[in-house]
Amino acid sequence: MSGRKTEEGLNDLTLLGNQNTKYSFEYAPEVLESVDNLHSDRDYFVKFNCPEFTSLCPITSQPDFATMYISYIPNKKIVESKSLKLYLFSFRNHGDFHEDCVNIIMNDLIKLLDPRYIEVWGKFTPRGGISIDPWCNYGKPGTKFEEMAMHRLMNHDLNPEKIDNR
């Protein structure tokens, strides 16, 4: 059988294939897991779309709903997708502003993966007649990705997107 070998990072995974998955209802960054990037010799994007992200307003405790977009260029590690799903679910009862949520997600993924580049965009559904769509990014300092991050930051909203999740 060809494909990824057990010694290529699979031994460290505890969630994938586990039939006793526990969903944390409190913010749980420790659930995130990674595996070795077998293609670290090239630059490529990994994109995740989570259309069922929820968190709570820190003042009113009312639920906030969003589609969370995560895109990154891996370095030595990639995030395991089931752990990412459980991590994003852990925001369900987490009270924070939209801007905080996207930055917390990005910071946790930077800590886990040390990516070359990452961006996180939350497209929150309107509440009270207004939607908030925070976007943040990061490029590894001292590399071309730091320049890429600045360029994307300065140009991220030049072509407003088609709103398709509202």
TrEMBL record:
Job of this protein: Catalyzes the NADPH-dependent reduction of 7-cyano-7-deazaguanine (preQ0) to 7-aminomethyl-7-deazaguanine (preQ1).
Annotated active site: 57, 64
Reactions this protein catalyses: 7-aminomethyl-7-carbaguanine + 2 NADP(+) = 7-cyano-7-carbaguanine + 2 NADPH + 3 H(+)
GO cellular component terms given for this protein: cytoplasm
Pathway(s) of this molecule: tRNA modification; tRNA-queuosine biosynthesis
InterPro entries found in the cross-reference section: GTP-CH-I_C/QueF, NADPH_dep_7-cyano-7-deazaG_red, QueF, QueF_type1
HAMAP family: QueF_type1
Keywords: Cytoplasm, NADP, Oxidoreductase, Queuosine biosynthesis
Protein's GO biological process: tRNA queuosine(34) biosynthetic process
UniProt-listed Enzyme Commission number(s): 1.7.1.13
Gene Ontology molecular functions: preQ1 synthase activity
Name used for this protein in its record: NADPH-dependent 7-cyano-7-deazaguanine reductase
Subcellular location: Cytoplasm
Main location, first listed in the record: cytoplasm
UniProt family annotation: Belongs to the GTP cyclohydrolase I family. QueF type 1 subfamily.
Broad class of enzyme this protein falls into: oxidoreductase
Source species of the chain: Robertmurraya kyonggiensis
Residues the record lists as binding substrate: 79-81, 98-99
Pfam families xrefs: QueF
